[in-house]
Amino acid sequence: MPHAIGPRQRLPEALADTLQQEILGAGLKLGDRLPTETELGERYNVSRTVVREAARLLVQRGLVTVTPGRGMTVAQVDGRLIAEQYGLLLRLSDGTFEQLLELRLVLEVEMAALAAARRSPDQLAALRERNRQLVAARGSREEFLTADLAFHELMAEASHNPFFRLVIDPINGFLRDTYRSSSGYPSEAHHTIDEHNQIADAIAAGDPGGARYATERHLRRVIANRNKFVATGDDGP
User: Whose CA is closest to 199, among 143, 115, 121?
Assistant: First the structure.
């Protein structure tokens, strides 16, 4: 017997919401396949056009992917759509690069404090290793950038709050694209190395106040020198 879907919404939106609830409720994992267009049409008594539009909405939400021969499969929720929105905000002048860095400042200061209180020995070792990679990568912009952003991602993991990764990862994705095309990155690499070590030291000591201070000091320097980090000329450091 066909399942009923909400009568007050447009059919594609109602079907998308229903499928979203089913995906989340069933605990489906990355790569799991959903029923075919025909099966969904019969189950919910809707046309294939409605199913296709519902699939498009789920793709926009980042919940599924649609590929020829496989149909709809559960997607990896990785924040890419959020990162695209950051980029659109900047390009449409509704937000500035400085404001994006301010968001990072607000989030990461408290994130570092939580990491100091909650980090595991393995996470602390990983933070130290990223800092060693920073030192070794001073001659390579790409390797330095990878180690730099990985350090901040590890802090998010060490906070043991999954929402930080959900927000921080797309910010770092945008920063990665921005810095990769900038002749000014890394600016004052020695300061970045010293500041990362100070953050790691405070986290290792289980000192939330010290972690807050070190992280704020680091990110305020980045904000103050933002024009260097996004330089596009040929006179970068």
Answer: 115
Q: Rg of the chain over CA atoms, in angstroms?
A: 22
Closest to 17 in 3D by CA, of 73, 83, 63:
63
Amino acid identity for residue 125 in this structure: A
Where does residue 216 rank: exposed (0-12), middle (13-18), buried (19+ CB within 10 A)?
Answer: middle
How far is Cα 134 from Cα 190, in angstroms, rounded to an integer?
9
Question: Which architecture, in CATH terms, is 11-74?
Answer: Orthogonal Bundle (1.10)
pLDDT digit string, tens, across residues 187-223: 889 999 999 999 999 999 999 999 999 999 999 999 9
Confidence of residue 237 (pLDDT cuts 50, 70, 90): very low
Q: Are the CB atoms for 204 and 214 separated by under 8 Å?
A: no
Q: Where are the domains of the chain?
A: 11-74, 80-229
Confidence class for position 81, pLDDT limits 50, 70, 90: confident
Give the architecture-level CATH label for domain 80-229: Up-down Bundle (1.20)
Residue 25, classified by CB atoms within 10 Å of its CB into exposed (0-12), middle (13-18) or buried (19+), is exposed
Q: Mean pLDDT over residues 139-159, rounded?
A: 96
